[in-house]
Amino acid sequence: MSPTVRITTVKPPTSQVGGGPAEFSIPKLSTHVLLRALKGVQTLNNAEAGKIKSDLAKAQANTDVANVHRRLLAANESSADRIESLKRWIKAHPEGGDGEGHYTFADWKEAFERERDSVVPQDITKVVLAVAMLREASGRCLDLDVDDVWRLIYPALMSPTLPSSIAPTRSAQGFLKVKLSEILTTEPPKKDAVPLDQPIEEGDFPDDDEKDGEGEAKAVSGPADLKPIVRIEEQISLHVWVPDGQRGEPDFAIHAHQCFAQGWILAGEAADHRYATRYSSTPEDGEKLYNEYGPIWLGPDGKISEDDYVTHQISSTVGNRGILVCAKESGKGTHSRGMSYRVPANAYHATEVPPKAIHATFFFFDGRRHFVQKAGILGPVGGKTNNVNRDPGGLTTTHLAAITELLRSSEPPVEKLCGYLDTTPSLGPGSSIYHTTLKPVTGHAD
User: Which of 68, 97, 174, 180 is buried most deeply by CB count within 10 Å?
Assistant: First the structure.
C-alpha cells in the first residue's frame, strides 16, 4: 500500500477567481488534442448505441417498447453523424497558426463559430473544447480558470440536441455523474506513475490514428491465456451532489481510485478526508479495522464483470476481498469554488457534502499518469456485498447544469466564503429547477 496518502490542492491566483479572461491558460490546442477529446465523446455515443440495440433485441415481442428503442437509436445515429461531421472538419484544418497544427483556444472557438451547425455542431464542439482544455491543463500541469470552461460548456449542456449519451448516472458515493468524454484501452498500464508535478509529454499521448476511431478498446498482443482487461484511459465528467439526501452508503465512503484524478470546483463546498492505510489485522494508534472491497459491474447486456470496466452500468456491487486493512484519518481539507485538487491513484479518501447542500466539480480520471487495477473500497469487517443502482431518479443533464449555474450565480466566487443551501425541490411545469436560499457559513478553512 502507498506509504503516503495525500491530496494536493492547487488554488489559482485571486485575480482569476470569478471570471474574466485567464492571464495564463492553455497556450495552444493541436488538432490531435481535439480529435482525442472528440474520440471520448464518440466512445460514449457508440456505447449507448450498443446498449439501445441490445434493448431493442430484447423488446421485439413488444411493439410499443420496440418503437421507443427505434426512436432512441435514430437519435443516437443522428448524433453519430454530427460527431463524424465535426471530425471531418477538424481533420481538414491540420495547419495552425504555428504551422504545426496548433491554434490558440480563441482561434479554434472563432473558427468553429463561423461554420454552420450542420457542419460543425456547436453543442458537441463546446463539449470537445471544454474537455480538451481540462485534459491539457491536467496533463501539462497548467493553471486553468475553470470559470472559463464552465461558461463555454454550460450552453451545450442545456442544448436539446446534445447527444443523449451525455447523461447522468448515480455514483456509489451518492452524487450524479455526467460523463462528457471517455476513452478505454486494453493496453497494460505503466508500472511507474508520472509524478504529479511532471507534465505528460506529447509523445506520451496515444496517437488517435493508431486507434480504431470507434470508441472501443482494442486488444493487444500478449500471452494466449491472459485476457486483456478493459480499463479507463481517460474520463472527464461533471459531478453534482444535489440536496436529495443521497450521499452513498456511509460504511463504504472511504475509497481509492484506479486512476490518477484531478478535480476543479465549480460551486459549493466539500470536506475531503484523507486516510493512511496499511495491510494488517491489528489496529494501532487510533486506527480502525476494515475489509477491502472491490467493484463488480453489471452491464446492459446482463453480464457481470470484476475486471473489465463497463461504460453504461445498470448497477454496481462491491464485494468483500477478504483482506484486512487498518486505516486512520491523516488529514482533512475543504474544497471550494475556484480550487483544483489532485488525487493519486490508489489513495484512500472520502468526500463529505452535507445532505441539503449542492456541490459541483469537473473531474478527470487520467490512466496515462497512473493506473492501479486493484484499487479498493474500505468497508465493514465480515460484510458481504453492497449494491448501488445507477438510476439518476429522473434528473437529466439539463437539470444538473441548471442547478450548478443557479448555485454559481448565487454564490460569491471567493474562496473564503462558501454557502450551504437550504433547498426545496421544485420540478413542476413552469417552475425553476430549485428554489434556493444562500446561507453563509463561517469558520471554514481556506
Answer: 180
